[in-house]
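Aim 2, interim progress. The first record below pairs a target sequence with its structure tokens.
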Amino acid sequence: MPNTADTGSDAPIDVTPLLDDPYPAYAALREAGPVHRITAADGNPAWLVTRYDDVRSGLADPRLSLDKRHAAPGGYQGFSLPPALDANLGNMDPPDHTRIRRLVAKAFTPRRVEALRAPTRKTADALLDAMAERGRADLIADYAGPLPITVICDLLGIPHRDRRDFLAWSDALITPDPSRPELMKEAIGAMQEFYTGLIAAKRAEPGDDLLSDLIAVRDDQAADGAGEGSERLSEDELTSLAFLLLFAGYENTVHLIGNAVLTLLDHPDQFRQLQRDPAELPAAVEEFLRYDGPGPLSLRRFPTEDLEIGGVRIAAGETVLLAIASANRDPERFPDPATFDRGRDRSGHLALGHGIHYCLGAPLARMETVIALEALLDRFPGLRLDVPRGDVRHRRALRSRGLISLPVAF
């Protein structure tokens, strides 16, 4: 790949290698320079930051805003979401980000996550029971996908009958079909209608779930006449928060579980060691996150002023993408980074972010992944791939790293 970092050239590099075989491509970019010009998914130019120190600093830099209002005119496009889905934490800086994160943080306290442990294991066992009857399965469609969607839907109080539709909508957003752009628009419209209807239903009949709690907070504030600058949650923020919690809670965890299982199948010695000592799984999950995490890129950011990253001048309003997958394989921070090594010092990996935007659902994702792997290794000690290794395919997407399918036999 050509070096564009030293001069800050406007000539974008080809991102195809990042879609087809990302880790060697990121290694080449890190070697060539810390910052590169690319063409983002929306067709507009962006700056890609590849080295650990720069990525970590960028994640916590208040000058790199998530608010799209700081994007330069005619630049970043991204998802065209309606206001009812767009007023979420992924588009906010303080003080709005601080206000909303404080309201929802109670859902992911260690105590509340621990209360989900037994129901999560029960769901995992039920999914494995169904798989056992057939002797083979697609581990993504039959296990890694249904487990987190069940957990997050139970947390939010979403009826079982609606979950299959949500999976289809999510796939349309995660890996859009460029030949059929209407599918993404249809999915966005269906999601908005779904969340609006769900909130109305829970207003009428509240349940013992997080979404009902958030609705109560919103409505109590409105009744009290809470004004601007208070802790008040607007209706669009409420709907957007439900959208973000469900979407992120599903997408990141299904990819993490799938990638972790494939890594273990690629490393049978590690597979056997974790079977013998499942107490090591929480530590192993941290290395799974570093080695092949679900989110290669951070959420896009926009400088609020002209600044310099890695010696490259970046103008206010331009799009900046922080390459988490590249940072987590930077040999300056993690020696021999392409080796899966549970014994390494993996502290400081950036798979779940850094700074004030650190993943809110990190404790839940970790717990689900540990339970998913523990149950799977216990039930199917002879788990193996059911197709040649070369036939296992990842989704072709810059912003997510997940398997299309994972055929296994046992």
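The second target in this work package is listed in the same format:
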Amino acid sequence: MTDLLPTTAQPAHPDPASPTFAVISGEQVQKALAGREREITDLVEATYRLHGAGDSVNPPSYFLRFPDRPSSRIIALPASVGGSVGVDGMKWISSFPDNVRSGLPRASAVLILNDPTTGYPFACLESSIISATRTAASAALAADWFSRNRPRPTRVGFFGTGLIARYIHTFLAGTGWDFEAVGVHDLAADSAAGFCEYLRQSGTDAEITVHDSAADLIRSSDLVVFATVAGQPHVTDASLFSHNPVVLHVSLRDLAPEVLLASANFVDDVEHCLKADTSPHLVEQRTGNRDFLNGTLNDVMLGRAAPPPDRPIVFSPFGLGVLDLAVGKYVYDATAAAGNLGLIDNFFHDLRRYG
């Protein structure tokens, strides 16, 4: 049985003497995050800064793969973040691309939050929305920082038009971006059409163009968003980027080493990004070094690295579990403050050590 605890009765963390467990639905998650793009982007920036300062634990992600389903995987992202967030936990996210054929989103996820004092889990949240939100906030944050020493992009192009692309556009619009043109390219015509319909419903005044080729999309955009399910590089011509766009390489495996070697490259975390055959990892394997990296997003925010104005900028974020925790804790606190925290009665049982 589930009940709703009034706001005044729910502490920020469970009482160690009486641990509780809440389940927060996707509907509640979306309600807590809707219309708060600037606030969440600020939270993601603050979390990057905590991570950069060492006030976090973010071990490597763990991949569960299946010999009989090579395109599918489930990933565990354990993490801990300090500061005002102060929470431990793990995201458990699956990627099953074949879902799209039956009308389901590719990814599904849950997020577990653990109390840092007792270790007890105190909430389970639907997390595909949280994951998409932190990814989009990270992309919007990077677009802002990497555009500060060059003309601000006015033409954005989306290569891949699924849920992540939709969330990234929402966060760009919600943090003040105003585009003259929006380009769209997807291998699936129905996905491109659906994304265009979303764009029209979003109220954008931008001219919307569906491009038949990747080359046309890239050449016509000064901000390019890659949000595909590509497993290996498929964009190989570095000359497509000769107009020096800002590239949000969110899907990590679209760009051939030749493209990255002709660009300035930034990541969210070096050790996380240079593994699992991401495009940056392929460059490291080819060159035997990491000299092609210009730094991290946090380095740029701290002034330790400057994106050059006369080269393409490629941001390749692996996606950090600490961001999921920060956004998940935000959702938990907002849901509790609204008096809508659904607690599971007697989830923890037999708490007496000797019965």
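DSSP finds eleven helices and 17 strands in the chain. This observation will shape the mutagenesis plan for the next reporting period.
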